[in-house]
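User: Just a sanity check before I run the rest of the batch. Below are the structure tokens for the first item. I only need the designed sequence back.
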């Protein structure tokens, strides 16, 4: 028998479930709906907003998020936040970026261990060594880095604006850190020479040209979209490449009959709800860091006001400058 509180929560959220039904079973929904109810109440009590990256599971992305998007959109929208509390449903570097742009607000991350293999691949000392090796060459830093690395960079970029940022400097050569593949994929679109670093995304580096061949063989007519963190050999074989938001926009505009997104798995669930005309063939690559963020974790974070994200002022000032320069250019 369904308990009366669960029953009430199911009734209150019936319209939301209609929206999520294609990707969440009734049994799963029954385990989620009380957390959703509690989060909606806590957001009001705390005057809080939830920012969710496109890789969040659909119950977070469509269920409780107030602002959704790719890293660039989240960084931009973070500048206009009015709430007292911001919960980042994403990974740690994203929460740090929000804190940089909103120093007076409380920024919470439901799990501080939600890291990123790219952010872990480079330190400020590595950046100093690169600068010594390439004197005078500006450093363009992917937002998937710690605030400490941003603080020793000239300006930031995301996967949605990398070419524009590199070209905005009007120099023949830039250092682009830490994603080797994003740097190589950007280098193919510009005359600017790009010095790369050896960082990789542990999710996107797993896609291969063989996967593309198999998708095309098994699903004739399928459209293949790849994130620029994939190796260049994969991007070359895809029909379109772009940031997570660019991929969503492309699907909504072109409405392909069948598509595969070579990126984190939850993206396909999230886009499929907005684009029911397209059948998604779903690779099951999941980011273990993004998946640390759960509804239960968001609820606990709002109840306990933990874990707060802070950036020491000595780092915050130069790191903020690098992010703000990017926002101004893009
Ligand atoms: P986007 O900026 O395209 O959302 O990418 C962020 C990310 O972490 C991709 O793995
Ligand atoms: Fe980092 Fe890759 Fe996870 Fe994105 S998907 S947060 S780049 S490890």
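Assistant: Here's the designed sequence for the first item:
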């Amino acid at each position: 028998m369904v308990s009366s509180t669960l029953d009430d929560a199911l009734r209150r959220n019936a319209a939301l479930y209609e929206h999520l039904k294609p990707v969440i079973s009734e049994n799963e929904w029954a385990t989620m709906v009380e957390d959703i109810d509690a989060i909606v109440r806590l957001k009001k009590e705390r005057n809080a907003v939830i920012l969710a990256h496109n890789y969040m599971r659909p119950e977070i992305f469509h269920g409780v998020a107030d602002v959704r998007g790719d890293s660039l959109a989240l960084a931009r929208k973070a500048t206009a936040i009015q709430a007292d509390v911001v919960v980042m449903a994403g990974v740690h570097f994203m929460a740090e970026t929000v804190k940089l742009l909103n120093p007076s607000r409380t920024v919470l991350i439901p799990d501080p261990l939600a890291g990123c293999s790219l952010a872990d691949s480079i330190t400020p000392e590595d950046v100093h060594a690169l600068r010594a090796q390439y004197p005078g060459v500006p450093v363009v830093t992917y937002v998937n880095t710690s605030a400490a690395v941003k603080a020793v960079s000239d300006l930031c970029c995301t996967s949605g604006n990398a070419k524009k940022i590199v070209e905005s400097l009007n120099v023949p050569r830039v250092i682009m850190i830490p994603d080797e593949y994003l740097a190589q994929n950007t280098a193919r679109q510009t005359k600017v020479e790009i010095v790369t670093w050896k960082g990789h995304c542990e999710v996107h580096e797993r896609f291969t040209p063989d996967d593309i061949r198999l998708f095309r063989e098994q699903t004739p007519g399928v459209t293949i979209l790849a994130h620029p963190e994939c190796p260049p050999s994969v991007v070359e074989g895809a029909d379109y490449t772009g940031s997570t938001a660019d991929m969503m926009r492309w699907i909504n505009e072109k409405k392909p009959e069948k598509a595969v997104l070579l990126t984190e798995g939850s993206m396909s669930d999230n886009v499929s709800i907005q684009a029911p005309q397209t059948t998604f063939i779903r690779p099951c690559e999941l980011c273990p860091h993004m998946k640390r963020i759960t509804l239960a974790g968001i609820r606990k974070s709002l109840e306990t006001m933990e874990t707060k994200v802070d950036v020491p002022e000595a780092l915050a000032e130069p790191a903020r400058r690098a992010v703000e320069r990017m926002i101004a250019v893009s």
